Amino acid sequence: MAGKLELPPLQVLVVFEAAARHGNFTAAGNELGLSQPAVSQRIQMLENLLNGPLFERRHRGVQLTESGSALYQIVRASLSDISEQIERTRYQRSTLRIDTDMGFATYWLMPRMNAIQALIPGVEVQVSTSPNDYNFRDNNAHLAIYFGNGNWPGTHAQKLFPEDVIPVCNQVVMDKLGDNPLPEKLMNFPLLKLPETRPQRWLTWEDWFRSQGLPAQHHAGSRTFNAYSLVIQAAVEGQGIALGWRPLISALLESRQLFVCGPEVRTERGYYLISSGSKPASVQQEKVTRWLLNEAWNFHHHSAPVSRQK
């Protein structure tokens, strides 16, 4: 028979998780309905129990120490598991949560939701989106599809699609460009783009022009949108030229809402299917995983070849 567990009060761990997640005792207290001194008192209780600091106190908040970070990963995962099990027990139904970004959800995942649901009848499929890079430590999805280099420690990541990027525009802009336009001709039109990120997360117009041996600073202007769906909508409406990521824009090319107006470029990045490297996969998760990988394989074998970025 299992022995008694030596644990601090559960509320202390809940307070620690919130403080670590927010990096701020006041914000943690606001979330939990506690005062800042009450949060600080519970953190001090836990630090006394462990005989060491869990946070470095700073002028504008707190930062986890090395031992605090290690404890946070365990507490966060454990509380997430408890929360998920409570939800399953409360509603007496199975769920499968898939996390991704808004662009991938809108243009690739949503058109395939009926097919995914048919694989796992009786299971509620939940789709959640985030504009941020994938964070394994704070993610409790069963599966995630995120863009990056495939390096997420603690996960099992399988590449679904490489970063294949092509300039696209609508028919009106294409008529002005003419057949097989030279890359430099695109500089005469507004360039539609996402905000820059540091570090850089995806191919930019500057990267694309550089791959064609051209400087990128001399063009007719640009328009920046904070969501990829807005970038693509602007291209469909003829507001300029966008960079199109396969497979996100493939359906728009097939329906002739958009047209390819420049060479395609490939990088080492791409969209990855991510799952926990430590938790066993459920039967439902394995079914969806196999289906997603098969869909990606089918796409690769029906797509035109691409040129590779230097």
UniProtKB/TrEMBL annotation:
Listed GO biological process terms: DNA-templated transcription
Gene Ontology terms, MF aspect: DNA-binding transcription factor activity; sequence-specific DNA binding
UniProt xrefs under SUPFAM superfamilies: Periplasmic binding protein-like II, Winged helix' DNA-binding domain
Key word Endoplasmic reticulum present: no
HTH lysR-type domain ranges (all copies): 8-65
Annotated InterPro entries: LysR-type_TF_proteobact-type (IPR058163), LysR_HTH_N (IPR000847), LysR_subst-bd (IPR005119), WH-like_DNA-bd_sf (IPR036388), WH_DNA-bd_sf (IPR036390)
Statement: the UniProt record of this protein carries the keyword Transcription regulation: yes
Protein name stated in the entry: LysR family transcriptional regulator
